[in-house]
């Protein structure tokens, strides 16, 4: 992996003499109080401004401030006119634009494409304060406000739309966000390293059109490429005969590709390299050309092929430039940036954040802030590779860790300065709770690897699974004066946890607040293989450890498993079997998740194309079924809530159609009863006569036995989850 310049080694811009602002300004009055006549960089965000290291705008703003730049914030501007985009004046260097911590479409719409009434990143949770596809709209307004100012887009919305991507909400393949937003540059991932270099180069007078060599950036290429060597993506993964057991994570050598032999059939768990002829062209002057936007828009199978090739080029140690033509223009995507070193990440998290919402909000409740105000992020990235998840595509597979000392200092800062702290840290985690300091045993192997996951179909033999550093951190943190409890609320990778029973004991004995959420996602091998998730045997082993150590600690604690409905590869039969498992284990899910195809995810490519990008892709390769119609998606969701009387009619009809009428009846072995409560009413967080109502359900005319059963269910609600 190539070395990168240290994030805080640049010569500071002159404005560092002014010192850090108490809070980054959101008005001309605040700028005047700071003695500023202008901003160097203005950040536009779809979120309310919370000066906390869990909010992207605050991190980028404070990082640039530490470089000596004056940074202003325009949070949730009114996009219907240009006025809000001019309220801080013209920035001297650039606009930085983000939709916020969430994709604006995911933020606003449910998996069934219904408009959400709330927005957790807005004061008082008010919805409707950001536009659809916010990055596009904000960028266009900035261009209208100040035509000559460079526009840089970033954040998760831009990251996941850097190439032609399937858009679930319009059911079309859309162009790269670079073209739709008309931005000058896109920075993907967390982007501290990129934004610092870009800003210094712009401040030094370099034109943004000349900045084309930064890792972790994407742009529209307008220069000659005569000194570059092109590889057609078909030569990397040439369509051919599909093997009986193709390996889903075929490694690719670092050498450049020409037409190659197809690997022979091997066991599914074997890592099979793509065999290639060696060329003498250097990787830093080689790019992979994907099928064009126009091609993948018309041909879903080639879309799946492009997705497969794209995901093979995501390791910063060996990735090459990706190029995709849109009309007469080429979108160039440089390889991912070098991950931040521990000392760099420590400094990022220890900048002068107030850890509070901006005073302009006058103590209004911002739900997302309330969730994280007493939590601490200890790491970034995820090497799990779940096909439905965007974390890996955004933050990368290489774990970036903070030091133990830095984490302890942040706990002390929360204890001593954050209003309302009661002694309970709500989370020490990150994208995954227990990947802290886990990495490949060899840097050389890590640099060359092209696997999509380090833990599927089994844990890689080169992966260090030692949880001792995390155990040490937990023990030190809970010994701090004034700390009553430290909870772990981030998602736990239980297939890693069972590699360290000592960690499970530590976690269960001291850091579970009655419930522990984990995500098996499904019970059946079909959907699990499309998710790249372990089987239920792993869950069962973790459950035994969890129950054993809970009992030894004298605590009544419960596992809360999460499952996904309607994921690609999931049939009605799979959902029925999952519902049977839930009933057998006495789980009644109150909240359920239906698969939502996010842009650029591998599972989204499966959903759109009906093919499996984890294998070689061609038109006659095996199809992947996806529940697409609203009726079938509702059925899959209903199986997860088999206990809800509202779902019984649809489930009875489906079970009869599937030939499983034997599961309808009033005994313990039956999934749904044969009778229906009268006057069952449901007023949910849905639409009724054009309005939305709070969740409420009233079941009437139950017989005595049913009433008793319902009371028992309420009494053990702690277990039901």
Structure in words:
By secondary structure, the protein is of the alpha/beta class. It has four domains: 14-216, 3-Layer(aba) Sandwich (Rossmann fold); 223-326, no CATH class; 374-496, Transcription Regulator spoIIAA; 512-608 and 618-676, Transcription Regulator spoIIAA (2-Layer Sandwich), CATH 3.30.750. The protein contains 26 helices and 27 strands. The protein has a ten-stranded mixed β-sheet, sandwiched between helices. A three-stranded parallel β-sheet has the order 21-22-23. The longest helix is centred in the C-terminal third of the chain and has 17 residues, at 536-552. The protein is globular and about 75 Å long. The two termini are 44 Å apart.
Give a brief rundown of this model:
The chain is an alpha/beta fold and 721 residues long. The longest helix has 17 residues, at 536-552.
Task: Trace the largest sheet across and list its strands.
Answer: 3-1-4-5-8-9-13-12-11-10
Q: Kindly give the count of domains.
A: 4
Q: What is the gyration radius calculated from CA atoms? A: 26 Å
Overall helicity: 25-40%
